[in-house]
TrEMBL record, chains A, B:
<dbReference type="Pfam" id="PF21943">
    <property type="entry name" value="TetR_C_46"/>
</dbReference>
<dbReference type="InterPro" id="IPR009057">
    <property type="entry name" value="Homeodomain-like_sf"/>
</dbReference>
<dbReference type="Pfam" id="PF00440">
    <property type="entry name" value="TetR_N"/>
</dbReference>
<dbReference type="InterPro" id="IPR023772">
    <property type="entry name" value="DNA-bd_HTH_TetR-type_CS"/>
</dbReference>
<keyword id="KW-0238">DNA-binding</keyword>
<feature type="DNA-binding region" description="H-T-H motif">
    <location>
        <begin position="27"/>
        <end position="46"/>
    </location>
</feature>
<dbReference type="GO" id="GO:0000976">
    <property type="term" value="F:transcription cis-regulatory region binding"/>
</dbReference>
<dbReference type="InterPro" id="IPR001647">
    <property type="entry name" value="HTH_TetR"/>
</dbReference>
<dbReference type="InterPro" id="IPR054129">
    <property type="entry name" value="DesT_TetR_C"/>
</dbReference>
<protein>
    <submittedName>
        <fullName>TetR family transcriptional regulator</fullName>
    </submittedName>
</protein>
<feature type="domain" description="HTH tetR-type">
    <location>
        <begin position="4"/>
        <end position="64"/>
    </location>
</feature>
<keyword id="KW-0805">Transcription regulation</keyword>
<keyword id="KW-0804">Transcription</keyword>
<dbReference type="GO" id="GO:0003700">
    <property type="term" value="F:DNA-binding transcription factor activity"/>
</dbReference>
<dbReference type="InterPro" id="IPR050109">
    <property type="entry name" value="HTH-type_TetR-like_transc_reg"/>
</dbReference>
Amino acid sequence: MGVEERRQQLIGVALDLFSRRSPDEVSIDEIASAAGISRPLVYHYFPGKLSLYEAALKRASEDLAGRFAEPHEGPLGARLLRVMRRYFDFVDEHGPGFSALMRGGPAVGSSTTNALIDSVRQAAYEQILTHLGVTEAPARMELVVRSWISLAESTALIWLDGRRIPRAELELQLVHDFAALAAVSAAYDADMAALLRTMVKDEPADGPFAELVGRLLSLAP
Amino acid sequence: MGVEERRQQLIGVALDLFSRRSPDEVSIDEIASAAGISRPLVYHYFPGKLSLYEAALKRASEDLAGRFAEPHEGPLGARLLRVMRRYFDFVDEHGPGFSALMRGGPAVGSSTTNALIDSVRQAAYEQILTHLGVTEAPARMELVVRSWISLAESTALIWLDGRRIPRAELELQLVHDFAALAAVSAAYDADMAALLRTMVKDEPADGPFAELVGRLLSLAP
């Protein structure tokens, strides 16, 4: 194998191990053994576990950011629901590593890992703005989108801790949460009210937004 | 000064400095100077900056957790709004230190600091459950409360970054966000629907929940 090919293979093996267990429980010996090479050869390609972890995290970050890309076609609610499905696929595939990373701590908290987490959040933020047809978000819109992204993260982390709620329900709930947070903000702000009207204008009668309204109406006494 | 008195004074001086700037920008020399003692004397009480930082963070955590305590009297919306005011008071007083801590990174991310952050989140979670009259939260209720706590954190962090929205508006918005997230969850779950009815049953016509409903109705075409 060539140098770059071997590096890429090691990153793949390491990402698989770092995804399935908390990174501080994964040793270089284990990575070497899973890759079928010697421990010194791992160190030939990566100076230590942290640099290999960061390379694996970089690949995972690019993978996740890529899953946010969604064609600008059809109703917004259905687009967001498809993204949520791909997001939960990712969270499902990388569960223990995702939890350890997002909960922070010495094994996973470096300025590089924080920058990678921020780059994924920023990619999600920018994708959502393009679907909303906005280039410069006013302050309240930025707040709604960024705080909803953090809500999606915490919802995924709570789901991973025991998986007590079916993930399909949470994917749809997060779409509804976005609409609900936008609606609260719209109650304060004309920009957000205009955005909300755009969001719901092309929603079909059987789409997720209409379903939410139906469910909420059924709660009324 | 006695040993314990001196330790407490140093913690207070350090907390003040760690609150006003990112902790990695604060030196032991500066803390010694602000406390009016020599650098070696600081090391006599604390082995290093990290242990002093952790002691300061422990004091701040207890302070913040204490602000969640609210008498079990009057409508729920007004109680939560009073807690939100005290929460933003805290965030305002400790702005740069709060941001640096919650954004993580090597200067502030240790297992001790993470445990302190978790203890504050847990205190908030338990306080909310007692106000809802719940001892064992079902899975969906736990999700709503815990994910709303993370929404409150991210809202405070976004506010600190430029303070472009009046904090009083965000304090009220977070109360509304709680109701909105509970309403979305209630659309899926009988326990949450029953809880929502309890929440709104004693709300006055001029309380925050009624205000939200009025604002939302005014959005309708």
